[in-house]
């Protein structure tokens, strides 16, 4: 019996295992291709559930197969067609994390799917499938989807846009403080991005809507809204949102003016002229345009400011 050197034996054994592995992989690929072809035939025949069974089998049993990625794309398309957004998203997530050659396309599709669920855009090119309303997806699930998109590519353009969309999703979930914080972080971390002004505007607009939702003039919410709107207009005067922000700010300022006038007249009617003068003085300082009007209010504001200045000069 011829005895081979130990090193040669190990090499031969390794070659044998390699060949066996290659044969096994080839058989798996062949089985996956047959299932895929059968699935495509069923899809063409309109039997989507049966087709989905074949594609799911490939995605589960033949993960190492080159056909696995093609099966995952078909799962995504069928799930989206059926209005099962979570299943469609999960297929895309596997493509983005398990199939390197498909990352960019799958990552972008993930973002579009979540964007569609939030219905944040109306001017996107739409297909017949996209016009069909998706099933209702809970805000928490949408937030989880966005976290996955961000995690899959934080520094990518898709990941950055997903960070902006996270602020929108948090507001929709009635998590306003988190939404404001997310939008503020976005604007700070991406000051030159085309969505930076939009993120800053969202902060101001959330606070403006909070003020509008409160009963009465709500001084605290009104002040927060005025500060945020003023900051936005100062930082982004050329933004497309600037005109709307100025309109909102005028409404806030008008409410503040009405409140000061109401308080001044209230204390005046009670005979407390000192308190009334304080509010008339604030009107003059905060709304100097009132001094250019020729009416009783202008006279009272002017008198209050003259008395204040005389008192300060003594």
Structure description:
This protein has 14 helices and no strands. With 314 residues, it is mostly helical. Among the domains are: 178-255, Tetratricopeptide repeat domain (Serine Threonine Protein Phosphatase 5, Tetratricopeptide repeat, Alpha Horseshoe); 271-314. Helix 7 (139-152) runs antiparallel to helix 8 and helix 12 packs antiparallel against helix 13 (273-286). Residues 120-134 have low confidence and may be disordered.
Give a quick precis of the structure:
This protein is mainly alpha-helical and 314 residues long. It contains 14 helices and no strands.
Number of strands: 0
CATH architecture of the domain at 178-255: Alpha Horseshoe
**What's the story with the biggest beta sheet?**
none
The first-to-last residue Cα distance is: 122 Å
Name of the top-level CATH class of the domain at 178-255 = Mainly Alpha
Query: What is the general shape?
Result: rod-shaped
Q: Determine the structural class based on helices, strands and strand pairing.
A: mainly alpha
* The CATH fourth-level homologous superfamily of the domain at 178-255: Tetratricopeptide repeat domain
Secondary structure tally, helices: 14
Uncertain ranges: 120-134
Order of helices and strands: HHHHHHHHHHHHHH
CA gyration radius, whole angstroms = 32 Å
CATH topology of the domain at 178-255: Serine Threonine Protein Phosphatase 5, Tetratricopeptide repeat
Q: Estimate the strand proportion.
A: under 5%
């Amino acid at each position: 019996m011829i005895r081979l050197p130990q090193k040669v034996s190990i090499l031969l054994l390794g070659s044998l295992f390699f060949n066996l592995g290659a044969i096994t992989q080839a058989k798996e690929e062949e089985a996956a291709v047959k299932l895929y072809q059968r699935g495509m035939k069923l899809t063409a025949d309109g039997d989507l559930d049966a087709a989905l069974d074949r594609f799911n089998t490939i995605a589960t049993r033949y993960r190492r197969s080159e056909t696995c990625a093609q099966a995952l794309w078909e799962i995504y398309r069928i799930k989206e067609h059926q209005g099962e957004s979570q299943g469609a998203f999960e297929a895309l997530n596997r493509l983005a994390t398990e199939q390197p050659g498909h990352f960019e396309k799958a990552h972008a599709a993930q973002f579009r799917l979540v964007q569609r669920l939030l219905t944040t855009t109306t001017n996107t090119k739409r297909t017949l499938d996209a016009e069909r309303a998706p099933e209702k997806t809970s805000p928490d699930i949408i937030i989880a989807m966005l976290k996955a998109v961000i995690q899959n590519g934080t520094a990518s353009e898709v990941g950055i846009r997903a960070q902006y969309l996270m602020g929108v999703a948090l507001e929709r979930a009635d998590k306003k403080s988190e939404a404001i914080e997310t939008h503020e972080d976005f604007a700070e971390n991406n000051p030159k991005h085309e969505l930076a002004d939009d993120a800053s505007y969202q902060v101001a607009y959330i606070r403006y809507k909070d003020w509008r939702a409160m009963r009465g003039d709500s001084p605290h919410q009104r002040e927060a809204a005025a500060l945020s709107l003023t900051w936005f207009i100062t930082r982004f005067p050329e933004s497309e949102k600037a005109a709307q922000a100025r309109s909102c700010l005028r409404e806030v300022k008008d409410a503040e003016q009405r409140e000061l006038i109401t308080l001044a007249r209230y204390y005046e009617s009670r005979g407390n002229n000192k308190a009334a003068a304080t509010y008339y003085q604030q009107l003059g300082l905060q709304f100097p345009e009132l001094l250019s009007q020729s009416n009783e209010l202008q006279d009272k504001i002017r008198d209050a400011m003259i008395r204040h200045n005389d008192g300060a000069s003594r």
